[in-house]
């Protein structure tokens, strides 16, 4: 009996270490997955049927730390939440559409990919960065969950509103896909956490977190197989698209930080708004792009995986050096 318990402890230690390793090196892991998908595209493309299920599992695991009471508490002080939602689903998509049309107006597939990249919900992995830099984790979880629940409606409607007249799309099919992939798993996890009064979050989440990271690796790697033909024959236009995505991604952080300063948010709330406003659930965008659009649409979405974690690390290192940030942290405690 003792040996069995000891073996279980060793397994948990290994899983915890693996999870910590992936979180620590996320800035390198996701680009490595992208490269693997491109190099082994012929073989890995056969596993594309797994992507939706893997993503639903990731959403379920990421939502286990939240419940409906948390949503209610955040709703009483909604300014940070509303700020992020406006930035994510109004400001950045409109800017992305304008920049995309100005630079690549003749190629609507590329414009669609650029808009989709900056329309998908906030990244679940933003919680890891918020925790690293001392942000408001409860606010971050609430933003992730609420944005996740809104995504099945916001993404197809905004895409149709901006591009529906020039790009053929299936908004209802997209909506159903997002409900299954994001909304239902999030609601199930929240209900389970509330029903067990938080016990499931304490017992299941640490065990499932490493497998959620493996699911993320699988989703990024499999989805990147679709852009292999473009990456192996890069053109000046595609390089310009990559530069455009990089510039818009950096601007997203700057805009989120600027809005936080205008609203006089404290240090932890500023960290949360910056990361939730800057990071995107690229995997969700990639699944939608792969299933509902030509493969060229996927390139602007997937190329963001090269930059996202690196920008996140750089943003954190810069903000903690700002004098007003340390004052905000101390005044909020």
From TrEMBL:
GO terms for cellular component: membrane. It is a multi-pass membrane protein. Gene3D superfamilies: 1.20.1530.20. This is Predicted Na+-dependent transporter. The keyword Membrane applies. The keyword Transmembrane applies. Keywords: Membrane, Transmembrane, Transmembrane helix. It comes from Eubacterium aggregans. It is found in: Membrane. Its main location: membrane. The chain crosses the membrane at residues 21-41, 47-68, 80-104, 110-132, 139-162, 174-193, 214-232, 238-259, 299-320. PANTHER family: P3 PROTEIN-RELATED, SODIUM-BILE ACID COTRANSPORTER.
